[in-house]
């Protein structure tokens, strides 16, 4: 990095910055002889143009009797120099007194920036201290140049060069121009860990934000060297070890070294892990006479025998302190204490509940919110002015503000108030962009090619509202949606959402019909705890079926329009027509071009169907990372009751649970179980479209809608063999996810091996259509009006397979190849499956 000062416009200006220190020294020497004491009134001033004479005189402070001695004159000289208003100051004695000769610094006409492409002028102007119409100060110019260089340094450009140029103008004015050579970004070439044995370097690279440079680094920013980010990574590593029981861990240093050959930084973290501790006992003590500490035991997230977890301990302290405040002990303070047994590697946790200082919040100052309304920030606090000061509630508010994702940085600091029992909270914020425009595309073996354009805003109008509009167009799926969320309904911490959707699913290789759905769904969301949430919803939507004419042209198969093909007669009817007469070589009938399943044609004849339902979801989430989890549990239980008006009635229940656990050598184990049941209400018959449809989402290795009950009427000769769905299903999967250790971590590739099992059965939809009297079954080789023929065997489907998971910059991608081991007689196999998308 280079920072220098150049001058255009004459040698005089170029020499001034070198002459000034010498001139000041000489000036001090000139007044070093014995001087007769003078008064301030006897000071004469020469050379001033803008600065008033009385202002210059004011820097000389007389002693007793209003006289100036030698020391006071020296102090006045130094004070004038330190103002930065003058290029030179000289003091000399005359017969009448003291003469102060000054050369004023020029006035800045304009401040300009040249060569900056990556940082805008507005951002640089806000950072520099030198301003138009201000006085030129060369030390300040040097400081501004350094400040500009720091901005680029934080953006990863360490070879930046900033060269200030001073251009003289008439009337003692100058233009200040900062010439900037931005240089290239300085990347991180390697990230190493020293002293880690419990966790591999591969695993620790998941924890930190600094990443090594690779071919796809231009899509992110973690590979650019930033000392602040490296320092933050030290804390992330420390907190990770503390969460997993290493109470003595120390991240001793984060060493950075620039390698000129690789043109990048080498980052090394030195770690002293210590031993892993388990919890031997959990005790509670209270020094408040009227408070029973044991009543807070249920709020402890640390249990005996478990691995020591500093994060769980922090949350326990926070919840205990908040609960004590709710019970009327506003000043109660919960302090955790850990007594370690170094031989047994155990720790005894003691929660000490004491009476804290009686301190109140005098004022809450919010600063830096240029766009976000202040009430949006204040509503994240559970305390306000005048309340008792509670550090746990302040920490919770800071965490909530960070989770909003509206701000680059959030910091809440305290300062003394107007009295000893008052504090002031200062909320320092830095806004960031909250709008997103994305063009997404993807392809899957089920849905084909798909593209989506969406516009979203997380902080709509600065009021904390969420709004999103998207349009989807694909090979087999098209639609549009609008979403809106008010996170604080009527100033309560209840989220109100509204979704309006239109979706069109086209016929494809797996279904013979298309569906069109139009509806809306308001919902209410409640955060019961940080890991537990509840959502209530109402859904109203219209659904209709579209079907090619050729698949629905035999609505009355008992009539003369039914002219079976010779193939159908010979292979299915045993060489006789529906009347029992031997036939051969008849012209193709209405079945020759295919026929869709009876439930599909019934939906087509009934027309659009309205569904009105009430439902709820209960979610429990302890995952360590929602995008790439390695530890934790995610459970989703939901129920929907249809029949609040509308044309259908049913009760649908489903549960989905995933448990992740780190094993050995960076291998992550995943157990996934799911189940569902659909019950009819009253005497209403269930529709085919309301039943569960399963495929690779239950057991991999099968096609979409590839397992479960299937229509066999006229199949496989002229029928489509549509999947009918079922009212019951279960599934279980065990998976091992492992990194490719020979590839760089930043590539984001993982492999997976898995085994799946599951079943779908108990179709309860329509099987006869009395109005048509159609012949759609066989008895002893003869046609009959016996209803739809279908297979509903409860077979356990199993498969094993391998997968490739890529957390790519283009979005998550997954490739699976699975081989079914057991399957139903009419199941459809699809061994390879691919899905993924991108945003750009």
TrEMBL record:
InterPro entries in alphabetical order: Bac_surfAg_D15, BamA/TamA_POTRA, D15-like, OM_assembly_BamA, POTRA
GO cellular component: cell outer membrane
Gene Ontology biological process terms from the UniProt entry: Gram-negative-bacterium-type cell outer membrane assembly; protein insertion into membrane
Keyword hit for Ion transport: no
Keyword Transmembrane (UniProt): yes
Pfam families named in the record: Omp85, POTRA
Lineage top rank: taxon: Bacteria
Subcellular location: Cell outer membrane; Membrane
Residues of the POTRA domain: 38-105, 106-183, 359-432
Main location: membrane
Keyword terms: Cell outer membrane, Membrane, Repeat, Signal, Transmembrane, Transmembrane beta strand
Signal sequence interval, chain numbering: none
Gene3D superfamilies in the record: membrane protein fhac, membrane protein fhac: a member of the omp85/tpsb transporter family
PANTHER family from the UniProt entry: OUTER MEMBRANE PROTEIN ASSEMBLY FACTOR BAMA, SORTING AND ASSEMBLY MACHINERY SAMM50 PROTEIN FAMILY MEMBER
Assembly: Part of the Bam complex.
Function: Part of the outer membrane protein assembly complex, which is involved in assembly and insertion of beta-barrel proteins into the outer membrane.
Family: Belongs to the BamA family.
Protein's name in the database: Outer membrane protein assembly factor BamA
């Amino acid at each position: 990095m280079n920072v220098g000062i150049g001058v255009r416009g004459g040698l005089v200006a170029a020499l001034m910055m070198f002459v000034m220190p010498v001139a000041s020294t000489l000036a001090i020497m000139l007044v070093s002889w014995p001087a007769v004491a003078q008064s301030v009134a006897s000071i004469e001033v020469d050379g001033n143009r803008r600065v008033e004479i009385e202002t210059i005189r004011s820097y000389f402070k007389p002693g007793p009797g209003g006289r100036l001695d030698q020391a006071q004159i020296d102090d006045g000289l130094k004070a004038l120099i330190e103002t930065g208003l003058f290029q030179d100051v000289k003091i000399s004695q005359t017969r009448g007194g003291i003469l102060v000769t000054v050369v004023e610094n020029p006035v800045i006409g304009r401040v300009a920036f040249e060569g900056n492409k990556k940082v805008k002028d507005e951002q640089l102007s806000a950072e520099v201290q030198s301003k138009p119409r201000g006085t030129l100060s060369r030390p300040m110019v040097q400081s501004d140049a350094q400040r500009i260089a720091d901005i680029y340094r934080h953006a990863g450009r360490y070879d930046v060069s900033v060269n200030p140029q001073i251009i003289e103008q008439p009337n003692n004015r100058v233009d200040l121009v900062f010439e900037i050579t931005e240089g290239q970004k300085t990347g991180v070439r390697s990230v190493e860990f020293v002293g880690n044995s419990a966790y591999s370097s591969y695993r620790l690279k998941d924890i930190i934000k600094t990443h090594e440079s690779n071919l796809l680094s231009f899509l992110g920013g973690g590979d650019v060297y930033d000392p602040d980010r490296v320092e933050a990574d030290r804390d992330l590593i420390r907190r990770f070890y503390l969460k997993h029981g290493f109470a003595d861990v120390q991240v001793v240093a984060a060493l950075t070294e620039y390698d000129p050959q690789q043109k990048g930084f080498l980052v090394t973290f030195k770690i002293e892990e210590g031993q892993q501790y388990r919890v031997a006992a959990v005790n509670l003590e209270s020094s408040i006479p009227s408070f029973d500490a044991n009543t807070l035991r249920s709020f402890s997230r640390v249990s005996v025998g478990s691995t020591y977890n500093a994060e769980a301990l922090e949350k326990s302290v926070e919840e205990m302190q908040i609960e004590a405040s709710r019970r009327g002990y506003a000043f109660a303070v919960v302090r955790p204490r850990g007594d370690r047994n170094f031989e047994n590697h155990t720790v005894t946790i003691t929660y000490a509940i004491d009476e804290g200082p009686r301190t109140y919040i005098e004022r809450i100052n919010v600063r830096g919110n240029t766009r976000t309304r202040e009430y949006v920030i204040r509503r994240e606090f559970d305390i306000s002015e005048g309340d008792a000061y509670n550090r746990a509630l302040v920490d919770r508010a800071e965490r909530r503000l960070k989770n909003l994702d509206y701000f680059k940085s959030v910091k809440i600091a305290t300062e003394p108030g107007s009295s000893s029992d008052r504090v002031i909270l200062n909320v320092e914020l830095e806004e960031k962009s909250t709008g997103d425009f994305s063009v997404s595309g993807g392809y899957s073996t089920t849905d084909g090619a798909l593209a989506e354009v969406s516009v979203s805003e997380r902080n709509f109008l600065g009021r904390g509202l969420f709004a999103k509009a998207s349009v989807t167009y694909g090979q087999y799926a098209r639609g549009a949606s609008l979403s809106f969320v008010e996170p604080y309904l009527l100033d309560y911490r209840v989220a109100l959402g509204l979704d309006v959707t239109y979706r069109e699913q086209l016929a494809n290789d797996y279904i013979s019909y298309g569906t069109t759905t139009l509806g809306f769904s308001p919902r209410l969301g409640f955060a019961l705890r940080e890991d537990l949430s509840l959502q209530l919803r109402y859904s109203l939507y219209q659904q209709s079926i579209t079907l090619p004419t050729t698949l629905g042209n035999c609505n009355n198969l008992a009539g003369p329009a039914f002219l079976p093909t010779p193939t159908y007669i010979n292979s299915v009817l045993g060489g006789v027509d529906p009347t029992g007469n031997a036939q051969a070589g008849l012209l193709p009938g209405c079945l020759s071009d295919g026929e869709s399943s009876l439930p599909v044609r019934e939906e087509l004849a009934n027309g659009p169907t309205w569904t009105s339902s009430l439902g709820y979801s209960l979610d429990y989430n302890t995952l360590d990372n929602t995008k790439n989890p390695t530890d934790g549990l995610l459970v989703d239980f939901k129920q929907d009751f249809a029949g609040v008006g509308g044309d259908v009635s049913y009760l649908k229940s489903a549960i989905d649970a995933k448990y992740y656990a780190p094993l050995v050598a960076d291998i992550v184990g995943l157990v996934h179980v799911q189940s569902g049941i659909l019950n009819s209400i009253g005497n209403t018959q269930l529709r085919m479209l309301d039943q569960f449809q399963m495929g690779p989402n239950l057991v991999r290795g099968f096609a979409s809608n590839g397992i479960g009950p299937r229509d066999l009427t006229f199949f496989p000769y002229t029928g489509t063999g549509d999947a009918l769905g079922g009212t019951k299903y279960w599934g279980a999967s065990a998976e091992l996810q492992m990194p490719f250790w020979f590839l760089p971590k930043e590539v984001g590739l993982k492999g997976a091996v898995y085994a799946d099992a599951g079943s779908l059965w108990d179709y309860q939809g329509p099987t006869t259509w009395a109005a048509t009297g159609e012949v759609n079954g066989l008895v002893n080789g003869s046609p009959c009006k016996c209803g739809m023929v279908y297979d509903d065997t409860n077979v356990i489907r199993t498969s094993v397979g391998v997968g490739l998971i890529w957390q790519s910059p283009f979005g998550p991608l997954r490739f699976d190849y699975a081989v079914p081991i057991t399957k139903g007689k009419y199941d459809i196999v699809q061994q390879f499956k691919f899905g993924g998308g991108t945003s750009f």
